[in-house]
Amino acid sequence: INAEYMGLIVAWTSSSVTHQMLRCKVGVVGDLGVGKTTLCRNFASRGSASGSYTMSTTIELTQKALAVEGAPSQVELFLFDCPGSPLFEDTVLASLQNLNRVLVVFDLTERSSFDKASHWLQILQGKACGVLTGVLVGNKSDLHNRRAVGQAEAELFARQHNLAYCEVSALSGVDLESPFNTLAAQFSSAFEAKLLGFANLQL
After folding, report:
1. How far apart are CA 16 and CA 201, in angstroms?
2. CA-to-CA distance for 139 and 120, rounded, in angstroms?
3. Could you give the CA distance from residue 171 to residue 115 in angstroms, rounded to a whole number?
């Protein structure tokens, strides 16, 4: 197990079962105003954080541990919420190294933010441990009448770029935890597969 995993912590033992905590570094990117900070803060606070924020000019770190159904490990997500303005792209590039996963957020009511998703993926190439993967998130799903990006189109883009796809409303909390649960499940599954591969090599 190398830099692909930030770390493995044996956290506690109960009923003769050893529980593990995996650390997953996630780059959260997307255009200015798509709701990245609202998404991360409300997820970490279970919806109790304020929905009114000023523009982020630095990377904001949020962390939260999640249990993964059917897995012996919990996953602690370290969410590096990056400023969306082009003025700060150099900061993003300098700060995001050895990413385990990426969360690309766009605004379902703003077509240009979806069109920029490929740009954000491009600037993160080379920052990941292994193949860049994660979740594409369409935010503001509650604004049905203003929708500018179809679900089928977004799902196709996600598949073409090795991403899962989720739609959420960060402000109202609808499906808020879905992308984060997906990230945790992806990371846990990849870790278990890596362990199995090592075990098979020793047979």
Report:
1. 27
2. 16
3. 22
CA distance 148 to 109: 5
- The residue behind tokens 């979740």 is 135
Conformational region of residue 134, where left means phi above 0, alpha means psi within -120 to 50, and beta covers everything else: left
User: DSSP letters along 135-191, please?
Assistant: EEEEE-TT-GGG--S-HHHHHHHHHHTTEEEEE-BTTTTBTTTHHHHHHHHHHHHHH
Which residues contact residue 125 at a Cβ distance below 8 angstroms, ignoring those fewer than 6 apart? 132
Q: Return the closest-CA partner of residue 108 out of 136, 137, 147.
A: 147
CA-based torsion, 29, 103, 108, 160: positive or negative:
positive
**82 and 123 Cβ atoms separated by less than 8 Å:** no
**Residue tagged 């997500």 (tokens):** 77
C-alpha to C-alpha distance for 124 and 150, rounded to whole angstroms: 25
Give alpha helix (H) positions in the chain: 36-44, 89-95, 111-115, 117-124, 151-160, 178-202
**Blockwise average pLDDT, block size 10, the chain, 203 residues:** 46 53 93 94 71 60 90 89 80 78 97 96 82 94 97 98 97 95 94 69 50
Query: Which pTM does this prediction carry?
Result: 0.84
